[in-house]
Task: structure prediction
Amino acid sequence: MTKNTDICIVGAGPAGSTTALFLSKHGVSCTLIDRAVFPRDKICGESLDGYVIHTLKRLDPDLLKKLDGLVLENRRYTLVNSNSERVEVDFPSTATPRLLVRRIDFDNFLIQEVKKSESINFLEGTALKELNRIPNGWELQTEKGERLTCKLLIWAVGANSPLTTKLRIPKHRPKDEFLFVRGYYRNIATTETTPTVEIFFVKKPVPICCCLCPVGNGLTNVEIGINKLKAQKSQHNIRALLPEIIEQHPELKQRFKCATIEGSIKGTSIMLPSAWPQFSGDGFLLVGDTASSINPVTGYGVGHAMTQGRFAAEIAVQSLLNENTTADFLRQYDREIKKTMGREIMLGRVFTTVTGLIPVLDKLIALKWIQKFMRHLLADSNFAEKLMRPFAWALKRY
Ligand SMILES: Cc1cc2nc3c(=O)[nH]c(=O)nc-3n(C[C@H](O)[C@H](O)[C@H](O)COP(=O)(O)OP(=O)(O)OC[C@H]3O[C@@H](n4cnc5c(N)ncnc54)[C@H](O)[C@@H]3O)c2cc1C
Result:
């Protein structure tokens, strides 16, 4: 039997679950599908920016209180270049803190809110297998053989779903694909007295950044990432690279002496946006990583995904009220994103094109003016917007 619904959201990560929660706040029901059963793991740097706090506040100010005990508040970044020169970036106490939290816990926190809502029909452990355009919307088929139709599709499947090709959005360039691995380590020695995210620029065996992010209960998320083509060219197995870097780096080697790894080193890949992303089309809205929500400069993506979820819910409500799901009507979603995070996306595009510059950045962070730049970039959530303001003319092309 085919079930009919007005709005179907596929993917219940931060993008999809936030969209569903905002729809529920607007009094609009929806079906939300995810192949995973929550809590589910997600490979991530696990440092969340101010957009997350602001979006949760808009959803329900009490949600922030519920996060107590689950997250660490972070107001310090440390960058260490390959000559062991350190740049401390402290956020003013008035700035919105970053949140350090395991994604398995944060995403499940959102899902628990989803499960409380009577207007969200949440199909957990349900993978979508087929997606087809039909005259008044979409027909979806799950792996279990269930059929659904909807008028408006909200696509929030993350970065790597093969079904995204069905939406006929422009493809990414192979050279924009990046590989990442993450290991959770316990008992890494530190002299820091507050939760601090540390980024090490490493020269050997390949120029790379190694990021340490404490996530509570004595655990630290340790992550590296590399352009896929570069990894293939240098013939490095990225999973083997992480322990190799720790072993070869003088400071890390000392600090990891008594550390133990929890579980295995896990890997993922993501396309970083080097072209202007498309956010909507005929009958659909793209939310989160499927619309390149990640900022390649800072690595933040969850806050953008949740903010896009808020916008998507607002446009979806309008679309139902006006009985209009055409690409023309839905394009107001693209305009909203461009207005709010357009300059940041532009900066991200520039960065993706020049990521080969990690060795240059490694040298540059010893310079005072670069340190000032990095301080602003990490501490001021509007800095990318301000920085790109003189280039606003370039945005008008899109
Ligand atoms: C290595 C790495 C480090 C990162 N570090 C950070 C960081 O420190 N801070 C930060 O803010 N962001 C970070 N990001 C970005 C962040 O992880 C993403 O921006 C964020 O997860 C986007 O959320 P999403 O809901 O779009 O996608 P996801 O969280 O990936 O959720 C997509 C959901 O869709 C479901 N799904 C997929 N296919 C199907 C299907 N066929 N049927 C049903 N369900 C399906 C999946 O099960 C999943 O639950 C990082 C990303 C990477 C790759």
Observations:
- Residues 85 and 366 are 7 Å apart (CA to CA).
- The first strand starts at residue 2 and ends at 10.
- Residues 327-353 form the longest helix (27 residues).
